[in-house]
């Protein structure tokens, strides 16, 4: 196992600054996910760790050694691509062992590693098949197996599940999590899929415009987002937002706008609240209690989405679309007027100008 330390990383491609002054510390044996929208720099960051992209400045350390300018083969890493990148004329066994054979690894050692990897990934019956005779999920397992046989200290994954259907993605997510537990290797995984990130990561770095917005556990990032971008990027449906003002009144912290007044004194402010300021209040759909309230907050039901185990109820609250999640069999119909309340102990508050968490 090796740690990965990135210091003041700068990457410029075609005259454009893709990443500027980025720092990231991945612990040895940790599963870290790089999450963000397309074009945010997450794949560029991964490829720079792999040595496929030259840096413009900064330092990349792997296992305590400076690897900024080392060749990819000398970095002790294995990379799994989105597109499988299998050799079509070779069978599964040959694809998995190709790199080892090229490097002169003894045949007995190759056989041991291929057997171990194929057992982990349930590829034993497929070893003599060629990629054309495999499903998409099986091909991706082979690509992962090819990385495993290298027994690298650091494994890099570049959106490896994005070409698979939803059912296969779910299955392979579970297998990757179990694989990490078995191998104990350091894994860095790139995705734009928040479900993948939340289920796989021990810690995840949410990126925007080449900058890490927040780097923490999925639980902390979901429940205590560092800024408005992180808050709205995670969650399905997304976080509900209300703009208003925040001020102290008789020793209490009060959020208010034209349609609501809420006592938010129980909120864990990062700094003492002073004066009056513009503010954005965010609340997750699961923290909107529909059918509960004292009548102070009331809205019209505009849409109901049945999701199997729960329903997403969309409310029209004075022109603002508000999503709530209902678990119980509450009789609700579209067009009805209904009370709701917000669980103020679960809200997030952001500065109206900087959009940073208060």
From TrEMBL:
It comes from the Bacteria. One of its GO terms (cellular component) is ATP-binding cassette (ABC) transporter complex, substrate-binding subunit-containing. Keywords: ATP-binding, Cell membrane, Membrane, Nucleotide-binding, Transport. One of its GO terms (molecular function) is ATP binding. SUPFAM superfamilies: MOP-like, P-loop containing nucleoside triphosphate hydrolases. Residues 4-234 form the ABC transporter domain. SMART domains: AAA (SM00382). This is ATP-binding cassette domain-containing protein. It comes from Duganella guangzhouensis.
